[in-house]
Design goal:
By secondary structure, the chain is α+β, with helices and mostly antiparallel strands. It contains 14 helices and 25 strands. Helix 2 packs across helix 6. It is globular, with a radius of gyration of 26 Å. The two termini are 28 Å apart. The protein binds one RNA strand through strand 13, strand 16, helix 10 and helix 11.
RNA sequence: CGGGGUGUGGCGCAGCCCGGUUAGCGCACCUGCUUUGGGAGCAGGGGGUCGAAGGUUCGAAUCCUUUCACCCCGACCA
């Protein structure tokens, strides 16, 4: 591992890539735009996954698995949906290869598929084709299914975690008897997303809904959580869609009511992806590397022992053993770094990997019956008496979790601007970045023009919008909404 | 798909213009000894045939032709 990362101030994008690769989170796959999630990065995803999986199970959802391949014809059944995804679908046209007679392989033309198959970019169509078979009566509703899966969207420009050709996510697909129930579900999930982001990833998010042009292809309404990254660009961190009856119509999914009437089902779908890992990196990272919120840190505490020879190592092991055992029994994720090598090197490496707490223990500490504890969030070091460690660590972890969240909130506050003229708007976008809160007349023409002229898009229309007396930043007409604009990932 | 760029041990690069010993350097890696409280030192060692194909030449990483791949910038996107 080389010594350091490019400073954020020098080149934020390079900083990001440096951190991802040097902290051992991920590597590039051989096919353009693909990503190998390495064990350390996957451990983060695993913790996010476990957390959210518990949340949805506690609210009555169950997991299932649907196939990777979807008949091409399915995609076309919902008009808006096909529009949104057709351009980025990987298509399977043949089923085998054959030798080219030299030493290569060619697609065997005899194996051409009757109906071509697409690799799922999202599973609505496949799932609704199945729901048609599974739903007959109101007794079958609601149907609350989630799947953890990979999906493929053939993007032109990719970045590790933020946008890769294949990515991991969860997609929930629910079916309801009533429109209100679907809306309730959509909002319930959005709240879980907010909780996950803020309470676990320490990533403050705005909640609200998308404009027409930004919403999911095939949805009536898209709700989202939107975060602000360290370079003052916005990141869509999770979306929850009320699909209305669009997919029920497309796949003819009806049910019989209590009154024995036939009605179309109401649907929702919602997803978060490995993109969240990128969000954590860009919310908390600094020039020393990652800073991980304890709740999703693969290692919450790393122990760096300082010793000279085999004998002093033995003494250290004996000194540490009871302490670490108690910590582990308390559920703290502890990693001991007994590798050969200088302590300085290890300090830097674990800082790069963002471990919240580092425990340094050497001969001097044994003598004084203490350890040195260093916090990754503030860099502060303190001496802690041996007998206090077991209680002190969990407190510190809580404190770090909180500090990271507070710092991120403060950053967002300092980078959220209210503007009242389009001139100011352009100035902020060009020179400052961040979120802009302002009036919008609700037309897609205004939205499009602003996007073309400034690259800023409406990230979210926040639930707490206040429109009294507000005029549209662009047209000057009375505002229909207060919108949050920003340049986005 | 349009514009720009790069391909030389695992990574980062030099060499190319002006062909000529055995293709070189830093980092990483391996072995040994000494080290270890903020990125250790010394010694020894392994690994590349220069993106690919063809051509020019006595001789090609270097010149020519073709081709492939990747990166950056733009249009699209979670």
């Amino acid at each position: 591992m080389s010594k350091s990362v490019t400073p954020q101030s020098e080149n934020y994008n390079t900083w990001y890539t440096d951190v991802v690769t040097k902290a051992d989170l991920a590597d590039y796959g051989p096919v353009k735009g693909t990503m190998v999630v390495k064990p350390y990065g996957f451990a983060m995803w695993d913790l996010i996954k476990e957390t959210f999986d518990k949340m949805i199970k506690d609210t009555g959802h169950v997991n299932a698995y649907f196939p990777l391949f979807i008949p091409k014809s399915f995609l076309a059944k919902e008009a808006e949906h096909v529009e949104g995804f057709a351009k980025e679908c990987a298509v399977v046209t043949h089923t085998r290869l054959k030798s080219d007679g030299k030493n290569g392989l060619v697609v065997d033309p005899d194996s051409k598929l009757e109906e071509e198959v697409i690799v799922r970019p999202t599973s609505e169509t496949l799932i609704w084709s199945m729901y048609k078979k599974w739903i007959q009566s109101y007794r079958d509703l609601p149907l609350l299914i989630n799947q953890w899966a990979n999906v493929v969207r053939w993007e032109m420009r990719t970045r590790l975690f933020l946008r890769t050709t294949e990515f991991l996510w969860q997609e929930g697909h629910t079916a309801h008897a009533k429109a209100e129930e679907a809306e309730e579900e959509t909002l319930l999930i959005l709240e879980l997303y907010r909780k996950l982001a803020e309470d676990y990833l320490a990533m403050p998010v705005l909640t609200g809904f998308k404009s027409e042009s930004e919403k999911f292809a095939g949805a009536d309404k898209t709700y989202c959580i939107e975060a602000l990254m360290g370079d003052r660009r916005a990141l869509q961190a999770g979306t929850s869609h009320n699909l209305g009856q669009n997919f029920a119509k497309a796949f003819d999914v009806t049910f019989q009511t209590k009154e024995n009437k036939e009605e179309l089902v109401y649907a929702t779908s919602w997803g978060i992806s490995t993109r969240l890992v990128g969000g954590v990196i860009m919310t908390h990272g600094d020039d020393k590397g990652l800073r991980l919120p304890p709740r999703i840190a693969p290692y919450q505490v790393v122990v760096v022992p300082i010793f000279k020879n085999g004998e002093s190592q033995e003494i250290l092991i004996k000194y540490l053993e009871p302490i670490l055992l108690k910590l582990k029994n308390k559920g703290v994720r502890v990693h001991e770094d007994w590798r050969k090598g200088s302590p300085g090197f290890k300090f830097n490496e674990w800082e790069m990997k963002g471990v919240p707490i580092r425990l340094e223990v050497g001969p001097k500490d044994i003598e004084k019956l203490q350890v040195v504890i260093a916090r990754r969030d503030t860099g502060e070091k303190q001496f802690v008496k041996k007998e206090d460690i077991v209680n002190r660590i969990p407190e510190l972890l809580d404190s770090i979790q909180k500090t990271l969240f507070e710092q991120a909130k403060e950053f967002r506050k300092n980078n959220t601007h209210s503007v009242s003229t389009y001139t100011q708007f352009k100035d902020v976008i060009k020179n400052k970045g961040g979120f802009i809160r302002c009036g919008w007349d609700g037309t897609s023409e205004t939205e499009r023009t602003i996007k073309n002229e400034t690259k800023a898009t409406i990230r979210v229309i926040p639930f707490d919008e206040k429109i009294e007396g507000l005029d549209c930043i662009f047209s000057g007409k009375p505002a229909k909404h207060e919108a949050i604009f920003a340049k986005a990932y």
